[in-house]
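User: tokens in, sequence out, please.
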């Protein structure tokens, strides 16, 4: 497991070499099969090896994240430095992060990743990381602690981001209700959004905010319908 984890880490951080390796392996297999089968058509396999190499460029981090989540142990980590590089992804600069991992046996392991290579779980297209100095949960394979997956939804920074995203429809429903406080459809929509938000995030809210939102929801549930 440690060897496989190290291989995934290496190729996640050296994508050009991964493509080259894929092409060379496909070419080698093509040459061997051409000699065994006595058919030159197998030589084409070397050229076809370029396609899966390109696919792996964009999926290697996902594969790494799934592997570490399935087989890894929990630990924690802190980003100690964030540096912008000259490379870009979707018109945004790629950043390089220096990280210190705390293993289950109390050891500190220095590692790092960049915007494209950092695996995180659950798999999402969105790319975001904890701020410098904030501890977050990771998983790793013993013997290859330099390769980590960020457990986003189990860490405070991920829960806070999800809560902010889930609060947006609540705020929209509240503002819409303000425009027409007696509109039953607006009131029902706000009640539903508020109920869904509390069910998902009540435990993560500060007590004062949780009490306020619960009171607001109770007021909506107990409100009498307007007279005809």
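Assistant: Sequence out:
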């Amino acid at each position: 497991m440690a060897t496989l984890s190290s291989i995934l880490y290496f190729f996640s951080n050296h994508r050009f070499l991964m493509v080259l390796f894929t092409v060379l392996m496909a070419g080698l297999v093509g040459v061997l099969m051409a000699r065994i089968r006595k058919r030159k058509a197998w030589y084409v396999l070397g050229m076809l090896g370029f396609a899966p190499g390109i696919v792996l460029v964009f999926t290697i981090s996902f594969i790494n994240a799934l592997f570490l989540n399935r087989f890894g142990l929990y630990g924690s980590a802190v980003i100690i430095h964030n540096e912008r590089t000259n490379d870009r992804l979707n018109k945004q600069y790629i950043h390089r992060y220096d990280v210190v991992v705390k293993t289950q046996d109390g050891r500190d392991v220095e590692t790092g990743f960049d915007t494209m290579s950092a695996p995180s779980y659950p798999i999402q297209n969105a790319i975001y990381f904890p701020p410098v100095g904030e501890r977050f949960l990771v998983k790793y394979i013993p013997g290859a602690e330099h390769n980590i997956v960020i457990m986003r939804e189990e860490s405070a920074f991920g829960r806070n981001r999800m809560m902010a995203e889930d609060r947006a429809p609540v705020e929209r429903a509240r503002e819409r209700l303000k425009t027409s406080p007696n509109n039953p459809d607006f009131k029902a929509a706000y009640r539903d959004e508020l109920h869904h938000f509390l069910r998902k995030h009540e435990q993560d809210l500060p007590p004062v905010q949780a009490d306020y939102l619960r009171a607001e929801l109770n007021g909506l549930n107990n409100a009498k319908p307007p007279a005809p």
